[in-house]
Amino acid sequence: MLKFTNSYLGLGEQFFQRILPEKVASPCLLLWNEKLAAQLNFSCDLQQGSLEEKSLFAQYFSGNSILQGAEPVALAYSGHQFGHFNPQLGDGRAHLLGEVLDSKGIRRDIQLKGSGKTAFSRRGDGKCALAPALREYIMSEALFALGVPTSRCLAVVSTGEMINRGLTKAGAVVTRVAASHIRVGTFQYFAARGDLASLKTLLDYTISRHYLEIDSLEINNEKLSLEQRILAFLEKVIAKQITLVVDWLRVGFIHGVMNTDNTAISGETIDFGPCAMLGTYDEKAVFSSIDEYGRYAFANQAKIAQWNMARLADCLLPLLVEANQGERDKIEQQVLAKVESLVVSFTAKFKHAYYVMYANKLGLAESTDSIKQLVKDLLALMQSKKLDYTLTFAYLTKLVNSPDNLVNKPKPQADNSLTSKLHSELKEWLNDWQPAIEKSALSRHEAQALMQKNNPMVIPRNHHVEAMLARCEQAVIDNQNTSGEQANVRGIVEEFLHVLRSPYQELAATKNFQDTPIDGDRFYQTFCGT
């Protein structure tokens, strides 16, 4: 079994509510992530397991039974939701069971989501519908395979209950594994209350858990002062957010709800409710039904990440003031200038990482002014011609090692219609890309290898995700009253994930999931369903 520790509980009762998950009617294990379980030192092949074993795990990962060593709590945090501050949010439908050390010695949170009401539920029922639980499992596994920092899912259990989401939906509990669930909103919770003691406790804990290297830093052979420590922490969190957003943009991921309570201090992707993938390139692409004004649109994600870092900086200001002695107004101005400098630096650091990322997607090892212009021209062309983001870069990846095809129309092949369209739309731009490739320090073979590492052949396209969810929902509803593993949800999902777990390779089944939606996702919407 999982070997739990509960270090977060040592921070104090003000950080959480102790509460047990609600019991459910008829739990049934639908999905079990064997590879992730093995990484958590919890090897158990339930695919070959007995009905008794599966039933036992369904009890554990629905919350009906508590694993030995686990101490369920609901975490406290605040958050800016679409720019509006709510001082008390917290886990309204989730229970942190505890922490485990994985095979690399890294501490991981194990959390049930959809496991019932807590003190933070407000008017919610604390439950989760099956489709959002499955979406988080599929999307987090896909992002992990794509090389994007992300939380992951260990299990999905159907509850045997039907819940009201406007329409009646099958219920489920998903088990999430994350580096931690400390959010920008966690810092906001204590800052909003003026609880500097708890804020300092949280800072120390977060540094020790995620940024331990800070305590090894020295300036002039001396350990960092409290002020230097706080600023180093902010700088490192900012760097993590830049890395995360650049990776989102690289693969075309749109988070959909980048509130501060959904921004993990660890730099992982968490909370997949209304997320989606970019098909046709559109920098203003928004799929979340609640993002009416495009605040979290595809191209806005870096700007919002910077805004969220400014909110984290706000929380740290009182600690910085307390760390200094002297005239308070003067101290406030000095520390404000220092944190503002770090937040403002986000822009230049992001732009550098952004253009390096796109240079690599184009097989170029550096990002000069001319290459930046090349990137801008390509994205503008993709926007105006409504080209598919993933397929365009996949096409360029195949093309780069065939110099004749850069200027001549490619020979007829199976995907001739797509190839011809892309070649026609990109022809003039290709004439600018070719000299850049020739001047690059990389050979064409090296350029292609670089592109293959950065340009996926396949992504979890929205219409395929929805098709999988609909099939799974129907399978569970059709078998709601049967015992054992309900229907073949595992088979349905694993068929999809088999391809998504090898996104940079062309498997025999890859072609089954590369097609674009007929309507170009024009009317596609996602919802915060968990």
Number of strands: 14
Q: What count of helical segments does DSSP give?
A: 15
Span between N and C termini? 27 Å
What shape does the CA trace take? globular
Content of β-strand:
5-15%
Radius of gyration: 24 Å
Mean pLDDT: 92
Largest sheet: 6 strands, antiparallel
Helix content: 40-55%
From N to C, what is the helix and strand string? EEHHEEEEEEHEEHHEEHEEHHHHHHHHH
Please mark out the parts with pLDDT under 50 across 5 or more consecutive residues, or reply none.
none
Q: Given the helix and strand composition, which structural class is it?
A: alpha+beta
Q: How would you describe what is shown here?
A:
- With 530 residues, this protein is of the alpha+beta class.
- Helix content is 45%, strand content 13%.
- The protein has 15 helices and 14 strands.
- Strands 2, 6, 7, 8, 9 and 10 form a six-stranded antiparallel sheet that branches. A two-stranded antiparallel sheet has the order 1-3.
- A hairpin with a 1-residue loop joins strand 9 (152-165) and strand 10 (167-178).
- It is globular and about 65 Å long.
- The mean pLDDT is 92.
